[in-house]
Every structure is written in C-alpha cells, then in structure tokens.
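Hi W.,

Here's what went into the run:
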Amino acid sequence: MAQITVTLPDGSAKEIPDGSTGAEFAASIGPGLAKAALVVEADGHAQDLAAPLHDGDAVRIVTDRDPAALEHLRHSTAHVLAQAVLEMWPGATFAGGPPIDDGFYYDFELPNGATFTDADLDSIDARMREIIAADQPFERFELSVDEGRALMEAHPYKRVFMDLAAAGDASDGEVDGGTTISFYRNSDTFVDMCRGPHVPSTGRLGFFKLMRVAGAYFRGSEKNPMLQRIYGTAWSSKKELAAYLNRLEEAAKRDHRKLAAELDLVSWPEELGPGLAVWHPKGALIRKIMEDYSRTRHEHGGYEFVFSPHIAKSVLWETSGHLDYYADSMYPPMEMDGATYYPKPMNCPFHVMIYKSSQRSYRDLPLRFFELGAVYRYELSGAVHGLMRSRGFTQDDSHIFCTREQVPDELASLLAFVLDVLRAFGFTEFQAKLSTRPPEKSVGSDELWSMATDGLRGALDAAGLEYVVDEGGGAFYGPKIDVDIRDAIGRAWQLSTIQLDFTLPDRFGLEYIAPDGQKTPPVMIHRALFGSVERFFGVLIEHYAGAFPTWLAPVQARILPVAEAHHDYAHDLAQQLRAKGFRIHVSDADETLGQRIRRSKGEKIPYVLVVGDDDVAAGTVGVNPRGGDVERNVPVGDFVDRLIEETSSTMVSELPTSLPAASA
RNA sequence: GCCCGGGUAGCUCAGACGGCAGAGCAAUUCACUCGUAAUGAAUAGGUCAGGAGUUCGAUUCUCCUCUCGGGCUCCA
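Here's what came out:
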C-alpha cells in the first residue's frame, strides 16, 4: 500500500499507509494516546478520528485534556440531547444546537405547538444517559445538498440551514464548502447535519446537566417562529461539572437583587412599575459617595457641570433624530399647552443646546460638559433586570465638543481617565469593544463614519487596550467604544461607553470660529463612565458580594459596648471618630453582645468595635474586622490611623487635580 | 413584546384528593447587663398577588390581569 507523509506538531515527519484514519494514526503514535484521542486536527481543521488523513497534512492529536476537546464534547452532548428529544417526541423537529460557553443548547419545535416543562428535562436526561451508556460511535459522512435535503425532509429548519449554505452563507455553519454537507450519525434513528467534529462515541460523554428550557426565535429574529430551546452544561469530568455548578451558586449568592434586600439598599415596589427602584438610606449613602467621588474627579479633570430638565418638546427630538431612530425606546409623549413633550431618553440634545447658547471660538474648545442625568427608556418588560437594566436610570453623562484636530488627544486622555476612575472602584481587568456603523438605521456619510471609527481605533491603540470589533454595533449617530470590566468572579459587565459623533453637531448646526475666521463644525464625543449610576452600583454589589470597601461602606465601623457601664465610652468614641469624617454607628440595644456581633457581620460592616472595662480603663478598642481575626486592646489612635490609611486614596484632598494623560 | 416557570406573614419557606392557614428568623413586650457570630418567655402579624368562573364551599381547579425569575430580542 502506498505511504503518505504527515507532519507532527514537533515538526517531524511520519509515514503512514495511504487511507489511514485519525484513529489508526493515533494508535501508531501510542496506545495511550489512541485511548485519549477525541479528534485529530489536520491542516488546522479538526476532524474526527474516523476520517482519512491526506498526504502533507500537519496533524495534531486532540485529547480530552485539550481546551478544544471541551467544545467537541459539548457539541456531541447536544447531539445526544437532540436524539433523545426526537425519539421521545415523535413528529418533533430540530434546528440548531451549537456548543456555547459552559455548555450547549439545542432548539426544537414540538408537534402541535407543545412545550417542554421542567419535568421533561428529567426524563430527557434519563434517556440521554441511556444513549451514552450504549456507547454509540459517531460516524461521519458527506452528501450533496440535494441528497441532504432528501435526508432532512422531515426537518424544515435543517433545510433552511442547507439552503443558506448552498447560497454561500456559511454563517449558520454545519457545512463543508457549500456544495457538500457533512452529517453525523450515531444511531440508526439519529442523523444530524453537522460540521463536527465529535467525540469518537457517546460513551465519552456523561458529565452534563440540563439546565433550563427557554423560548428562542429561529435564527434570533423576532420575525421567525419561536422554538423551544433546552440549555445544558457539559464538562470532561465530574469535578469540573461540580465546580461549575458551584460557581453558579456563588454567583447567585452575589445577586444584587438579593443583596439589595438583605442589606437594605434598594427596593422595587410593585406600585412603581417594572424597572423603577427606590433607594433606601444605606443604598442612597453609597450612591452619594460614588457620585461625590465622580463629581470631584470630573471637576479635577477639566469638566464643567451642567443640568437639564427631564422632558422637552418634540422639536428637540426631531432635530436630534431620536424620534426617527429611537422612538421605540422612548416613553410616550405628553400633550400640554398645544405642544408635545417627551421624557428624555438621552441627555445629548440638552448639552447641544448649552453649546449653542453662545458663539464659540476655537479658543473655547474642548468644552467638556458633565451631568448626572436621569433618563427614561421604555425597555421591553421582559428585558428589565434589577439595577442592571431599568426603565429610569441616571447616566454619568459627558459631552465633549472639540475640533477635529483635538480628537485623537481628547480620546486618548478620555480613555485613560475612564480606566483610572474604574480602577479606583476596584476593577483591574478591562475588555474593550469597537462598534462600527449599523447596516440600517443610521445617519451621516460613509466618509464621516470611517473617520470617526479610525479616531476611536487610534485611541484604543494609544491606550494599549485590547479590543474586539462589533461590526454594525454602533449607535445611529456614530461608532463607539464600550469598555467591559471583569468582576471578582470573572464575569464581564458593560459599563463605560465612548461614542464619536459628527452627526448631531451637523443636525443642530453647531459651529465654532476657527483661527482662520471660518465657521467650522465641532466634533462631539458622548461619554458615560459608570454607564449608569444604577447599573454601576449593581455591579459593585456583585463584585464585592455586598462587602463594600471601607471608603464606600455606609457604616464603616459599629461600636458595641459590652454592658451599660460602657455606653458613655462608646458614644464618646463614636463622636471622636465622626469628627474625623468617618461613618460610625453605636449599637447599645438591649441584646446580647453575640447577637449584636452577628447582626453587624450580617450587615457586612468593615469593623466591629467591642468596648468593655479594659478599653474604658486604657483608652483602647477591641477590633473585629470583617473577614479577619479579633484584636484586643488596640489603642484608639492606631485604629484611626488604619481607617485613614484605608480611605485616603479616595479622599477628595488626595485626588488627582488634572487629567491622567495627554491633552493637559 | 415572545416562550417557560413562579407569587402563601417584613424575610426564608412548609402546606392542603376543595372544608376555619403553619414554622424559623425579623418585629413588639417582659425578664436577663452580658468581652467577640443566635439568652429565655410571651404577644402580635396573612382577603394565600388581583379579578372572574366552576362549586354548597376556592388560597387549592379553570380563565384573565398584574408582577417576579430564567431565556429570546434589545441595551447604559
């Protein structure tokens, strides 16, 4: 038999018989590897072990320890899910079922519009485990598009995928080339069109859990029928599965809606309506600290504070373009004195009005307006989510008006400013996203859009921030940079946004007098740093699991007198600490010491101070720090130093008095 | 808005083939005055989300509405 030559990852060449499959190749390397092998990569394309290798392939064996293997495993588990459902619901059809972060899903349509229930998940799970126990091998084969259509005659959604593939649209995947379609069969009763690769057989699977059922539009469009989606998670070991489920529990404990109630921060009374919150004293105090810090930083960073009303006449929103492009998200209008008023969904047009209020010169620029502006957006009822997504929220909104020449420096210093403030709140990891012109619903010339997009790209490069590009994800008036932060348990949250806008200045006829005496349109930069004060607060709650750092904690220390004899000392000490600017509470309630400590710990107060006979005599305190060991007989002065040290970096007197980079 | 699942005391949750609603914590009162995560006793607290229907009788069954959660879509 003729030999072919393949290249191994270490660069060495190996001769194997022509027609050898990946499995035979793996066996020729070593029996241990053959056992661990899931798929091979030939010329960068993962293929399953049953497929033949070709002469000249650069071959790599993917084992179950390889990150890519997890995807194969999840994809294979999705097939097992589909097999189980199709067997259990005769007449059911299926659409797409890809691997995703942490697991997989599969979309189905059940006969007569039937739906899944949670109880179904249990029986589907049981059937899936039977399929896995049967250790069915995954077998790959290829058909032409016509043959494929015939094979999938009972499954219209699959035929849509095939039609898309035949039309050259590979975005829906599961296709080889476009003329030929690959299929995977793992039993007499189940075949799925699929790009693969898969694990060699279903016996390799098993560490999975079906998580939930959900509705999902076919191909993600509201215009398409809604299918029944089943989500699952899958891992390569029992330990990893358990760790994942544990992570979910951990995240649930941090849920800001739960902690907001437990810590008495915010609530959502039914009487107000969905997505509308009231702030309780402790939540409001933290918010005030956040806002004060933000205001001070902005003041030092060369911003000027402005204010604007909550409603404005329709002409403003017509000029801005919001009524043309954003009306779906706006609250309905109010008729008054023969005019039509809308609650504001954005602050921008008001700041534009302030710019327009006088003749501007290039000497005035850049102008940086800042406002904590409440906006109202009619979010779909199914979209509201605690503080993260509400119908009324406060943007820490800034609009910068500058010349085209100033844009690069301004953007660069802006990004640096944003990251610096986020770091002060304890975030250290960032991920940026550059969003470009939307395919529909946008204004402005191509030339302006590409100039604006290049400007943002330059700022990202200057900041040395890694970014991904979201094609078509921009606002209707311009491209944008979004900055995601990563929280303490690794989740990403979208917060800051920087949007470049050549359009609004044009629509409102903004201008400044350039050095040459010509009237010139300024460039406008929209920027939110927290994004929304509400969402940022929600993220902070989850990031810190409610245990706010001392500078943000609503109560920084609670003093507990051991007995009545120590009450005076406790209150004197509290006055002394308050005089230094700290937030101190005394609990001399008629409760045992243990009870009061327990309550204080539940409130996640940074320091519990216990004072008794020893302390009254020596001028000391017993310090019980959050998450630390008790220290007895600490001199009061030492404790004050500790508080000062923990809070000084965010105290107003210590804040930077200029922008952190460029443009000074 | 669409699909699925919930809503019982301030909170966490039991409960009932349809027959006067239950616990723990919290609250209030009394006693206890206490050195590092729950002192004891007593009291009060609910139109079982709202409305309609079926029924002798509905918190329980059916329908509608509101609302919350998980998704889809969207988004700061």
